[in-house]
Design goal:
Rossmann fold, 4-stranded mixed sheet, alpha/beta, 5 helices, 7-stranded mixed sheet
Amino acid sequence: MKAGVLALQGSFREHREVLDALGVEVIEVRTPQALSGLDVLFLPGGESTTITKLLRTSGLVEPLQRALDEGLPVFGTCAGLIVLADDLRDQHGANAPAVFGVLGCTVLRNGYGTQLDSFEAALRIDGIEGTFPGVFIRAPLIESTGPGVEVLAAHDGAPVLVRQGRVWAATFHPELSGDLRLHQRFLQEVAA
């Protein structure tokens, strides 16, 4: 299996380290050519406005949109969730334009607050035994999900891990948790 990690900004190194530990071949995606031959793609956490600008200046938006529309499995964490969602809002309630729009949910950027409001929580995730360490850093809040979106984990009643077909997204950072199980589950499921 060949996994791509969008490597423009954010926690792409941490995703790479998890995938390396799982024995997966990893390609750091910075150009459209790097998308060729990928089996899965990870969109890291980071700063969503910066990632969006870098996606545009690197020429990745259109080829990545095509790959997603053609069914490339993708897992977005934090900012990665934001660029996948089809309905975005900022802290003032204003709508923001969707980047890829392949995940049917309404997302509030920085919905859990500022950097000072970052936290960790033990999460119960469908299909993973015990708890999983959720690391929330200026995390987005999933306000609602559309038809076909399955909630795999919630915190305080709000979805924090969702799946819509081959599109997975988390409001938290599994790549920062020190726990390989969520990446492993995603890879096993989309490879099946």
